[in-house]
Specification:
Structural class: alpha+beta
Order of helices and strands: EEHHHHHEHHEEEEHHEEEEEEHEH
Strand content: 5-15%
CATH topology of the largest domain: Glycosyltransferase
CATH architecture of the largest domain: Alpha/alpha barrel
Number of strands: 14
Number of domains: 2
Helix content: 25-40%
Distance between the termini: 46 Å
Largest sheet: 4 strands, antiparallel
Number of helices: 11
């Protein structure tokens, strides 16, 4: 596996000739692109237009315009971006030419932290450079996001829509939350987006409010018990649905945690929002698992069509371990569940095939972030604990 450093670019405006007086800085968190970079270097993807060269060089954190130009290079003609490339890579002339020729191949997506992260970065690069090409590209990305939103407020994983599970409303890997956080930043008039006019900001606010409504409408009511959310919900019925072959319809605590934190960040929340948070918190408390931890161990190399794994994951009994949650809980029974690529549901990690056992996050501590914040939130908004 290639080792690469993902840090923070600092886009600065108003430095003196000697860099001593900093009037304004716009930090660009490139950890947002870590999943994309990891997939480009470490996972075989037949859909990639370009693949990394051996020892592909990378830009330094202060090469702001070079990174911005890379983001423009990857951007498609519809304003969105494809996934699984490294925005920090120093591309060869041949790689650049391949990307330019592929502009109208609209494999644009929000998966793996794509598109909304590019918009956020371009906005900050624009504020540092005042080069209009970056604000124009950011605006095109925002328009792409707005166009991709369903009438019910949700977003698919890919847009234009594809004829598979990716057309479902997607909470998986914080896709939905990532989009909403971007829109919320714009809605709150963050000066990073000062290049947007009042009409565009109003469009963004409307999209954000519709997004919240969709979240409230998709919270799972499991035979009278309101719980949390699935990774993906049908874009018409809003019911939990299958995503990939190892991602069954279920209550998904990892993704639900990000959703609840988003709801808890709303100023003056409505009663519906308050109730949604309360019910999810109750569910997180009920579904917590005590007395175990997941240990990563060294293991013989396991080669699959996707990658090479040299680790394994095992569940270890540990009375001192903090509460942990499985990613999936079965609908109706609320049993922790796991799944293989053949769609076969199993009920322990050891029953999952090695490639998925080591290559997927089956357990999570994310709900604890919600539980830690809940007392302060409930006190602030007059919600009973």
């Amino acid at each position: 596996m290639r080792k690469f450093v993902i840090g923070t670019l600092l886009a600065c405006v108003g430095l003196s000739a000697f860099g001593q007086k900093k009037l304004r800085s716009y930090p660009i968190d490139t950890t947002m692109f870590a999943s994309n970079a990891h997939h480009w270097y470490d996972i075989k993807d037949k859909h990639n237009i370009i693949n990394p060269k051996k020892n592909q060089p990378r830009y330094k954190a202060d090469d702001l315009r070079a990174v911005g130009d890379n983001i423009l290079l990857y951007q498609k003609s519809n304003g969105g971006w494809p996934k699984n490339y490294d925005i920090m890579a120093i591309l060869t002339a041949g790689q650049k030419d391949s990307l330019l020729k592929d502009k109208d191949n609209l494999n644009t997506t929000f998966d793996n932290g794509t598109s909304y992260t590019h918009v956020a970065s371009l906005a900050r690069i624009y504020q540092a450079t005042k080069l209009q090409k970056y604000s124009d590209a950011a605006l095109a990305g925002i328009n792409f996001i707005l166009k991709a939103q369903y009438a019910n407020g949700g977003w698919p994983q890919y847009y234009p829509l594809q004829k598979d599970y990716s057309r479902h409303i997607t909470f998986n890997d914080d896709v939905y939350v990532g989009i909403m956080e971007l829109l919320n930043e714009i809605k709150k008039n963050n000066d990073v987006y000062s290049f947007l006019d009042a009409e565009k900001r109003k469009e963004v606010e409307t999209a954000f409010n519709r997004g919240i409504e969709c979240i409230l409408n998709t919270q799972i009511n499991d035979f009278g018990e309101v719980t949390a959310w699935c990774q993906q919900h049908d874009e018409v019925t809003l019911k939990p649905v299958w995503a990939r072959a190892f991602e069954p319809p279920s209550i998904c605590n990892a993704e639900s945690s990000g959703i609840v934190l988003l709801l808890m960040g709303i100023d003056n929340p409505s009663e519906r929002v308050k109730n949604a948070v309360q019910q999810a918190v109750r569910w997180f408390k009920e579904s917590a698992i005590d007395g175990i931890r997941v240990e990563v161990i060294a293991a013989p190399a396991d080669t699959s069509q996707f990658t090479i794994s040299r680790i394994d994951r095992v569940v270890v009994q540990d009375a001192t371990a903090p509460p942990i949650w499985t990613r999936y809980y079965e609908l109706q029974t609320h049993r922790p569940l796991f799944c293989n690529r053949d769609r076969k549901v199993v009920y322990s990690l050891k029953e999952v095939a090695r490639e998925r056992r080591s290559g997927y996050g089956w357990y999570t501590y994310n709900p604890q972030k919600v539980l830690d914040r809940y007392p302060e939130w409930s006190k602030k908004w007059g919600v009973a604990n």
